[in-house]
Each structure stands twice: as structure tokens, then as C-alpha cells.
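C-alpha cells please, single chain.
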Amino acid sequence: MNSPHTTQKGFTYAINHPLEKEVIEKGAVTQTEFKKVFKEFPWEDLLLQQNTAKDKEIHFSPSLNLTNAEGLAISVSIVGEVEDHEYYICYNRPTLIKKRKWFRTVEVFDFFCSVVPRQTQEDAFEAFELLFQNELDQLEERWK
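Here you go.
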């Protein structure tokens, strides 16, 4: 089991704004700073902007992304209608997979992203907290 007291170096975050063509890289962040970003993130306002925009203007669902120094990442998006929405939690991590090479099967590490719909804002906050605390077993179990 991973220790919740593991150092929190190397975390960066980014924002996906529905009407911006590029991901907005915000840079390094501490757990305390990210809690404030999460709390103040205009989830429903951005969802309303997305839902009232023309299809050609939309580039992303409103999302917050957190990545650690090893490349593990949690991305949370809000989808649906403002009065009836849910969150998608995406957990991106290296996973051992089997690939066929010539006449044999080999195991290699590759990045895998699981997408779990029908989550709450509290679930999203918990996913980010678990990544900050390096509780990778819990992340894997909950959002595999």
C-alpha cells in the first residue's frame, strides 16, 4: 500500500475550456492550491457555455486535469445539462498489457485510460486527493 505521506513534488494541472481550441496548461500546483482551484472551478457555468454554443465552437467538455511527475493523470469532465449533470473521471496510468509480436505474446507497459461516467463532484474531488496522496491502489480499484 502506498503511503499518504509521499512527497507531492511534480504535480501540474490544466484546464479544458469548452470554447478554447487548446488545453490551458496552468503549471505546477500544490495540493492546497489545487483544492482551491477545484472549489472555485466554474463547472456549471462552463457547462452552460458549452450547451448554448454552436457545435463548431465546442472543442472540449469542461475539465480539470491533474498529472504527477510519473505521468499518472486524473481528468474530470462535467457533462449533461446544468440541472441534470454528471462527472466523468478518467484515470490515465501505465498498465501491463499483452501484445502479439510475430509468433509470440509479450508483456509491455502502455498507458491506459479508463473512463468512468455517472460520478459526483465529491467522487471527482476524491480521485484528485488520492492521486496527490499517491494512493494508487485505491485509484486503480475505484476507477479501473
